[in-house]
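User: quick one, fold this
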Amino acid sequence: MSLFKQTTFLLILSFLHVRADVCGGIEDRIILSLLATERHMNKEIGYNYQISINNASDAKKIKLYYNELFIDNRTIDCQNEQKCITITEHLWDKGIYNLDLGAFGLNSEYQKEQNLKAYQYFRIKDSYFAACNYLKKMVAKYGMGWYAIASYHSQTEKFNYEYQKKLIYHYFNTSKDMSILR
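Assistant:
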């Protein structure tokens, strides 16, 4: 494991360990599994500067403005917090809210009731609290279990089940990496 990966894991783990009680009893391994599932395959776990556009036709339109920043058909690597804020606000001004933002892949369409500002999606602590608030809401609705945790991504059974499989994979495989770092 590279020094950068070790440092990133340690920083995330130390933050999550301190904050575990904030997330309504949801263990930090689950939160890290969520981060691992939400990350772009070419980026490290916890990489904050990403915007994924969930609607293909919206992504095509946005490529006209930010083509050089796209790292796949739907994901923008906005490279720093200020650029992420600017792009996110531009997308919102165009009425595009179905976006997965930051390391936690928070969908701004479903986070409206939290009244998050654009910058909060791209700061790990702010996005952690927002993710926890949403997870707590799902656990309150469905009870503690993989369905509730996967409802972070989708409450539609088919998509929820697919997300559960990814979460469970990362829960068991990422945790093995984590144990080396503790």
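User: anything notable?
Assistant: The chain has one domain: 3-181.
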